[in-house]
């Protein structure tokens, strides 16, 4: 049985890439197809000798690595890949990889992190965040129309869909009119240890982009004066540092081993934005740490109020402050080993078992 794996872009290491890593570990001989590959940023995790890139790679290399310039070419590039020799193709999809064209007898299992967010439910936010107005808007509107039309037509190509959460399952149903099974992303629970002590700091691990709502957490901790450590980098970092008080520390990007130490020693994990799933909060729970999260999206499926953390219910500082107050009030009732046991529901072992079960189920229905 020959297996191939495809992932939209390999230009950073984030939550979707953790899922990809689990898939590539399951199928060690499978090549990894991707539209664009940045060896400097991801080569340690995804070595070059396993990678097969699209014709867009040469443009990326000569454009100062600005792959968004080629957005209109992405659909054609993903359709140009040849999967003739494979029995199974697994697509790790955030926008385009579900649109591959495979032979009739090839099983195409799509693990969907989300339908294309900036073409569908995040279209207005994307336009505002990127200040798309005037002449830019005249070009942007027909481009989004083209991408939505292509995305909907391409949604017929996978044999079956897996959603990374119930939240994404609803989105697949709404935009693609497709059913899907939910298999949560894998968390390497075993690499973390439970700690019932802390160093009296709260922790955020995130890319620093507007939709992550890190500015809201900065405002809250400016107000409370409590210590907040932020691990991660991104385009909003300079702005966030400019509005932060001295009790907030920015560490930038850190390797996994360093992040693990901060997770094991924090007082609680803070997650201010909406996410389709959210791997980092589950990693914090693997260490027995409670999570403060916005009560929308995938975190409502992984955090249990009063047991593994607390929610805040409005996307503003006041509601978040109320949630933090409840977390601190209930702190003596949280049980680190209970929190960790809950995190094990999202382990790599569970993920691998369910992926293999899904493939067997698909194969059993083929005449």
Short descriptors:
alpha/beta; 367 residues; Rossmann fold; seven-stranded parallel sheet; six-stranded parallel sheet; 15 helices; 2 domains; 13 strands
Task: Give your account of this protein's structure.
The mean pLDDT is 92. This protein has two domains: 3-186 and 348-364, Glycogen Phosphorylase B (Rossmann fold); 189-345, Glycogen Phosphorylase B (Rossmann fold, 3-Layer(aba) Sandwich). It has helices at 15-26, 39-42, 57-61, 74-79, 123-129, 135-154, 166-176, 214-224, 237-243, 256-265, 279-286, 299-302, 317-329, 336-343, 348-364; strands at 3-10, 32-37, 51-53, 88-93, 107-112, 160-163, 181-182, 202-205, 228-231, 248-252, 268-271, 291-294, 309-312. The two termini are 17 Å apart. It has a seven-stranded parallel β-sheet. It is of the alpha/beta class and 367 residues long. The longest helix is centred in the middle third of the chain and has 20 residues, at 135-154. Helix 1 links the parallel strand 1 and strand 2. It has 15 helices and 13 strands.
Could you give a short account of the major beta sheet? 7 strands, parallel
**Fraction of residues in helix:** 25-40%
Residue stretches low in confidence (pLDDT < 50, at least 5 long) are none
Which strand order spans the largest sheet, edge to edge or round the barrel?
3-2-1-4-5-6-7
Distance between the amino and carboxyl termini? 17 Å
What is the strand tally? 13
Report strand %: 15-25%
Q: What's the tally of helices?
A: 15
| CATH homology-level superfamily of the largest domain | Glycogen Phosphorylase B
- What string, H for helix and E for strand, traces the elements in order? EHEHEHHEEHHEHEEHEHEHEHEHEHHH
Quickly give the structural class. Answer: alpha/beta
**In the CATH hierarchy, what is the class of the largest domain?**
Alpha Beta
Looking at the overall shape, the CATH architecture of the largest domain is 3-Layer(aba) Sandwich
Spatial shape: globular
Q: What is the total number of structural domains? A: 2
CATH topology descriptor of the largest domain: Rossmann fold
State Rg.
21 Å
Q: State mean pLDDT (0 to 100 scale).
A: 92
């Amino acid at each position: 049985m020959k297996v191939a794996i495809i992932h939209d872009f390999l230009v950073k290491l984030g939550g979707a890439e953790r899922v990809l890593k689990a898939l590539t570990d399951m199928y060690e001989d499978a090549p990894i197809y991707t539209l664009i590959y940045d060896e400097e940023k991801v080569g340690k995790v995804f070595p070059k000798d396993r990678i097969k890139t699209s014709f867009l790679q040469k443009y990326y290399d000569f454009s100062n690595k600005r792959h968004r310039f080629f957005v209109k070419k992405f659909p054609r590039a993903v359709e140009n890949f040849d999967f003739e020799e494979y029995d199974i193709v697994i697509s790790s999809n955030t926008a385009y990889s579900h649109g591959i064209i495979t032979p009739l007898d090839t099983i195409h299992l799509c693990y969907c992190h989300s339908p294309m967010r900036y073409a569908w439910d995040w279209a207005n936010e994307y336009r505002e965040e990127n200040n798309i107005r005037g002449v830019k808007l005249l070009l942007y509107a027909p481009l989004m129309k083209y991408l939505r039309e292509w995305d909907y037509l391409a949604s017929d190509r996978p044999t079956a869909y897996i959603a990374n959460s119930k939240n994404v399952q609803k989105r697949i149903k709404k935009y693609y009119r497709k059913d899907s099974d939910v298999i949560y992303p894998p968390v390497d629970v075993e690499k973390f240890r439970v700690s019932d002590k802390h160093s009296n700091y709260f922790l955020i691990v995130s890319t620093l982009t507007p939709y992550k709502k890190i500015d809201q957490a900065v405002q809250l901790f400016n107000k409370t004066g409590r210590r907040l450590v932020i691990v991660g980098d991104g385009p909003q970092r300079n702005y966030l540092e400019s509005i932060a008080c001295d009790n907030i520390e920015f560490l930038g990007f850190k390797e996994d081993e360093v992040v693990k130490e901060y997770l094991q020693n924090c007082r609680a994990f803070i997650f201010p934005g909406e996410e389709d799933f959210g791997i980092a909060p589950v990693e914090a729970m693997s260490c027995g740490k409670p999570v403060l999260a916005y009560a929308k999206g995938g975190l409502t499926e992984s955090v249990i109020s009063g047991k593994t953390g607390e929610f805040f219910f409005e996307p503003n500082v006041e509601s978040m402050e109320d949630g933090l107050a409840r977390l601190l009030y209930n702190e003596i009732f949280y049980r680190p080993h209970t929190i960790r046991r809950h995190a094990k529901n999202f382990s790599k072992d569970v993920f691998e078992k369910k992926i293999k079960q899904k493939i067997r189920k698909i194969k059993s229905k083929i005449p």
